[in-house]
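Schema walk-through. Below, the input block comes first and the output block second. Nothing else is stored per chain. Lengths vary across the set, and this one has 786 residues.
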Amino acid sequence: MKRPMSKLEIQQDVGAVNAEWLPVSGGIKLDEVENTSPIEAPSPYVYQQPTVARGVKFRLGLFATRPLAILQRALIAEREAGAGFLWSPVLFGLGCLIYFNLPREPLTWAFPLLALVSAIIAWRVGRGHWTWGIFVAILLITAGVSAGQLRTRLVDTKMLSKNYVGSVLGQIIEAEYRANGSFRYTLDVSRKDGLKIRGVTRLPERIRLSARKGGKAFQVGQFIKGRARLGPPPGPSFPGAFDFAFLTWFKGIGASGFFLNRPIAVNITELDEGTWALKIARVRSGVARIIRQTLPGQSGGLAAALIVGDRSGISKDTAEVLRRSGLAHILAISGLHMALVSVTLIYFMRGLFACFPSIALHYPVRKWASAVALFAAAAYLLLSGASVSTQRAFIMISIMLLAVLVDRRALTMRNVALAAFVVLLLAPEAVLTPGFQMSFAAVAGLVATYEFISKRRRNNNQVQSNGLLGFVKRFVLRDMGGLALTSLVAGVATGLFAAFHFYRIAPFGLIANLIAMPLVSFAVMPLALVSVLAMPFGLETFSLELMAFAMAKVVDVARWVSTLEPHGNTGFIPVWAFGSGTVSLLLATLMRSWLKVLSIPFVIVFGLIVMGRTTPEILILENGKQIGVVDVADGRLQLLRPNAYKFSTKIWRGAYDPSHLDYVSSVKRGRADEGYACDQWGCAVMVKGYFLVQLSSTAGLVEDCRLADILIIPFFTPNACHFLPENERPMVIDRAKLTRYGAHAIYINTPRTVGKSRRAALAKGEIIVEQAHGENPRPWTAQKFK
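--- output ---
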């Protein structure tokens, strides 16, 4: 081994092109050598004669490590910016999502034990080690699964397992008065004489019933009795659609139906006044009743929606134009409404304190006004029904107002993450609801955008101009520009979720919001607050009428914008595309560094999946009495019963036939669309060479088993077509399968040719059947397996 080189020799050879310095084990860096004399510090570097191989290896190593170093610096910057906490509710929500989509119910102790083990390992490893983040992520995901499982165990709603016709007695805990004059009541039937069904041990404790128009309107807290038809809450309209039965299960509603006659009131005096929840519901119902008495018709329905969150009085036409125009968000009490109420009250209280200079100059009136606004926000939360979006808004507003009380800055992404955590802890099932997803997507997008703008402004150090020019500039750029930017960001952030859940977006939402939102902000919501404060004194009439006038102008704007084309119908969005788009949105909003660009590949994946999506040829409702065939004759969705099950068929059209979403059948009631051939025994239709038959009677079962390729039987027929050889039997979907597995969608990949057997088509996967529910029962589908 050669002697170590001196400082002079190092300086002479350091410019060599292919020279390579190899450090001796335990040595020091070159810059440290330069600061010492050759005699005092022996060099830890040894000069070796360079070779071509060594030079290539050095350059390749530098090329490979530079991107890793850049990535490492970005990750360190993310950690220092607190990105770990921002991703915590995302991982927790992912755990909740995993639980609700598991193929079967896990063991009670499995995921909590895994969470405990992950927590212990993360604690032992320590925060400085790179594996700490992995085990914390596992902890959050398993904690989310455990929270969903615990919530499910605590709810344990008793669901009706079969249809029932008979007497019902219950106490009204929620009353909805619809625009067409009908009513819908949620009843508590937990009394012994509330609901009696022979052979059923787990009777529902809460049911939802509709009553025909023309009857008496009953109030919350009253007991009513009548003859009703009940059934389990309906499931998804097709595989992949939103499961309304899942949501009603977590609301505690175990059955739904309608009264066969007009219900009557029953006096039961031995009962107490009810729980706090019932008392609050009475207050909400009373406020809604006062509003409707003052503002009859559509105006009262809109005012009740904004003040107490009761949207049942809004007509279908008004709700539709608000959705098309992108203004439907004003009907869902959320951060906008909560902020407007709080800010209005804060300005009012500070103006009131300013009338007393001795108080305003010597006391923290800003904090006092914030405390009053916090109390008002809590009252608004209870009065509005405490939906998921309202809970999120209240948590956000509470954090902001509490921050004012303790002299801290509060409007940050960390507060959005904290609010998401609290909502998911209270209701893990909210992760699947459109309200939760759209609410947090909009807020996260807005906070991320304005944090970026604020940072740019601080870096530029722009001086604001005064005078008329400064006023005009601030109005155009700050006020109107801010409103436009807010509408644009919120529309883009929520567009993915609107397309996935409702199969539409609002392409002209920016125009509608620019025109309508000033009215909502400066007229509608302040007048709503004044009306509520004036109600105890009976002075709400004038303010409610002004509010109705302003809301009528908002609806006029929505009606005009909804006529513009295109309407924004998107059709069904595959779940993998939805997942890719969600990941892209999370990366774009939660990342604090250049890592935001990682969202771009997920946008590309989203587009590729959407362009390659497939459409089922046959849709079957879970009761087997409605069938839709896609792309028959003129390409329109052809229905077996065009005038029946309109709620589900509208969802079908939105998902698979958006161009005919507003189609109204002109055929007579009971007659099938063109393409179906019907007789007294059933209906048949040809789909890509396969003969589909839907029976209305078992009288022709033997003949139809021989003729049909796909046989749909809307009643229980055990071992149907068993008399035929196995390779000659049709695909049978009877009431038993439909009840257990829900709605069906059938994909025919290859048209049937002459001579091809049924069994061969099924064996080769040319016919694929999707079901709404899996093979194993979950708590919210357990009644289907009984």
